[in-house]
Amino acid sequence: ATRHEQIVENLLCRRTGHFHPTTLIRAAAFEAVGGYRTEYQWIEDHDLWLRLSSRGQLANLTDVVLRYRQHTGSVCWQRAAQQRQLMNQLLRQAHQQRGLDVPDSVLAHPAQSRSAAGPGKWARAAAKGGFPVSVHKHLRELFKSHAATRYKFRMFAESVARLMVSFPLRLLRESAALPSGNYDAWHTKWRQHQGRERAA
User: Fold this and answer.
1) Phi and psi for 54 in degrees, rounded to 5?
2) Could you tell me the pTM of the whole model?
3) Tens of pLDDT along 36-66?
4) Contact at 8 Å (CB) between 123 and 155?
5) Which residue of 27, 58, 95, 121 lies most exposed, with the fewest beta carbons within 10 A?
6) Residue 113 within any structural domain of the chain
């Protein structure tokens, strides 16, 4: 969503409006709405976007400028229950302020548990990009989870199959950017690549 109306609709329907790491906010607008509110810790960005949307226009770029890393140590994964409860409270308030009824489909049931499918999907996505270390990390988390055994092995098979194609292609793409016969440059680039993989 790039237009203000679309972004607000997403926010009111529990969908992401902006990606926090790449958001630019005017300091005056930020201060005028009171900044981040501690009572909405864990979803403070969603709360801020909703309040800013009542003061001015929100917009998103059409270009993709962010690679968002998903992992089991993230707030969204570790604090899912608190986020659901706070989001329900925030959306009730936001709809009420706009004179709207809250659709039942927007509110999450507090008893819902975090799906164990996350690491499997992340492993498959990492495999598509040709990142074997990330694939291994996510599959390890998946096999430690309470996900169904059938699902675990399906994600394992799909990730390996994707990686067998994507990893060689990724190496070819990266090596094509290096001068022919320049071993030192290639070795430096490879060490940098290994450092990024370990940090992922």
Assistant:
1) -85, -10
2) 0.69
3) 999 999 999 999 999 999 999 999 999 888 8
4) yes
5) 27
6) no
Yes or no: say if 83 and 90 are a contact pair by the CB < 8 Å rule. no
Residues 13 and 92 in one domain: yes
Domain span including residue 94: 4-106
Give the total number of structural domains in the chain. Answer: 2
Q: Are 83 and 36 within one domain?
A: yes
Last residue of a domain, one of 86, 106, 126: 106
Angle made by CA atoms 33, 36, 42, in degrees to the nearest 5: 140
Q: Can you tell me the distance from the alpha carbon of 194 to that of 200, in angstroms, rounded to the nearest whole number?
A: 10
Two tokens at 10?
A: 């997403």
Q: Are residue 127 and residue 153 in the same domain, yes or no? A: yes
Integer-rounded Cα Rg, in Å, for the chain is: 21
Can you tell me which residue has the tokens 């699902």? 151
